[in-house]
Design a protein that fits this description.
Structural class: mainly alpha
Helix content: over 70%
Order of helices and strands: HHHH
Distance between the termini: 29 Å
Strand content: under 5%
Largest sheet: none
Number of helices: 4
Mean pLDDT: 83
């Protein structure tokens, strides 16, 4: 097995570790009602964050090995823009909203997580589009 194949396998594993738990997160927002549930969601969020950084770093190493040639492809530029854009929105907006939602849930507001749940579904859809672009490498966006 050569280095490129090994890095590609690590990249795919990081993608699974990133997307897999994210598929569950919108359905698990009800766990915010108690301290143990909030702790579980916090650990899940940390795993998603670490896997996301590993995914991005692995992807950049793969791009470097290809001498940045894939950056000329439209699907790659779109994938990077979607990935980095969603991560930036998540970092600068959603993390702050999450802290406010936790405080409201502790006060007993049942509908406090709805806005966060909508964002998580949108974020999941964006990352699934990125996965589809990475797998299909569409000629339309070449």
């Amino acid at each position: 097995m050569n280095t490129h194949t090994f890095l590609l396998i690590l990249h795919v594993v990081a993608a699974i570790a990133f997307i897999g738990p994210m598929l569950l997160t919108p359905r698990l927002l009800h766990l915010m009602r108690d301290a143990a549930g909030r702790d579980t969601l916090h650990k899940l969020h940390q795993q998603i964050a670490v896997a996301g950084w590993a995914l991005l770093a692995g992807g950049l190493v793969l791009l470097y090995q290809q001498q940045w040639a894939w950056l000329q492809m439209g699907w790659m530029r779109l994938s990077l823009a979607l990935f980095i854009g969603a991560q930036a929105i998540d970092h600068f907006w959603a993390d702050k909203v999450e802290a406010k939602v936790e405080a409201k849930v502790e006060q007993g507001y049942a509908q406090a997580g709805a806005r966060l749940g909508i964002w998580l579904c949108i974020k999941l859809a964006v990352f699934l589009i990125v996965c589809a672009l990475m797998i299909a490498k569409p000629a339309l966006l070449a």
